[in-house]
Amino acid sequence: MFKYYKIFLASIFYVISIFFYNYSSYMDYKQKEIEVVDDKLKIGAYTVYNILGEDFFKKAINKDSISQEEDWENINKLSYYNNHANLAFIYSSIKKDNKVYLTSSSASKEELEEKSELHYFHHYEDAGESLVNSFESKEILYDNYTDKWSSFRAVHIPMTLENSQVIVISAEVSMEVFNKIIDDIKYKYLEETLLYLLLTLPIIFTTYLSIKEKTLENIMMEHEVMRSEKMAALGEMIANIAHQWRQPLSVISTGVTGMKIQKEYGILNDEEFDKTCQAINDNAQYLSKTIDHFSDFIKGERNKVVFDIADNINNFLTLVQGSIKIHNINIVLDLEENIKINNYPNELLQCLFNIFNNAKDALIEKKVENKYVFISSKIKKNHVIIKIKDNAHGIANSVLPHIFEPYFTTKDKSKGTGLGLNITYNLVTKGMDGSMEAYNVSFTYNKNEYAGAEFRIELPYE
Predict the structure, then answer these.
(1) Of 206, 290, 376, 421, which has the most beta carbons under 10 Å away?
(2) Could you give all domains of the chain from N- to C-terminal order, each with its CATH number?
(3) pLDDT per position as a tens digit, 377-390
């Protein structure tokens, strides 16, 4: 009865871990989406300059510089882009006699239909403090503000023309749209968490039944721990891959939208078309490659096959690329080419994943500013040597002799089970007929001195 109680507690711990991990992923993704919105605002602001051109801004110095016909033409151009980009407004301004004047602006659909307002050299009485300050600061400024119309998030980009005139190009998105993006992320992650738990319930139930049939408690516990660690790894990899896909999908979406707008303006040339299509194809191939690597890992087949060490390491890096980017970890590779061994590629992937996670956690916990993980491989006599080291200042001498022991951990109980390195050690020594050790090292890289922990895996090479 006691062993089934342990299984129940392990299941509860697993569910709680999924919630906490997805919450952490949500916070990371929320920040990334805010950056995406800010990048979209910057693109919108620079589009004002690109559409109107520097000649316009050089002559836009007073009320009589631009005709009403030219002003309406500019309004229509800016409004066309603004509506397609789903922004609130894009505009430009200058400062004269300590007053801010609009020199161009997009317009609402009602203003376009009624031609109710000309924007050129309109005194912008409601100019926010960040817009006013941007003329002097010469820095890109972001601002959340509320005026008599609504609430907005804006970017203001100062530019100095050849004639020394300072202009500011700006773009705004309504806070209603901005907050909806954040709310959508929150609900999306909640749905994903519940869906993931729902999908894994059959696995947990199947695990329970298979363990129940075991006769020896030590076999039962080993099987459960291995499966739990693998599922935890899968949960993190799913979040990693979701993060990895956002940038390629953004490139594809931006490329298609850009070509559409360029075609409608009649400025799409063959060179730009070919370049964009190539970028779309490259990113689509990258997405396909990620699916293949994840599919190979999730199958978990224990087949002894001949595989290439460098390819295996690069496949592993593809699976953790999201975590690498989120935590700004620099990966330094020194891989000997064409090392092929007859062994278990999935087991090696799990070992690399567990060691990388320990290095990542140490780099974050010790607040290392420039984070590095070094991975090397080489042949030495009849063995393949794989080394993974970090610059997280090493492992305490009192801790180092115990790191491969089961349930030994220096982390908070909510963050670690103490089984990851024990499982890794057993996979290498018992599963792949190899050896493994860990020690502290000091080394020089790019003329800088570092200290960290190094894990050494030795596998037979036939």
Answers:
(1) 421
(2) 31-179 (3.30.450.20), 277-460 (3.30.565.10)
(3) 999 989 999 999 99
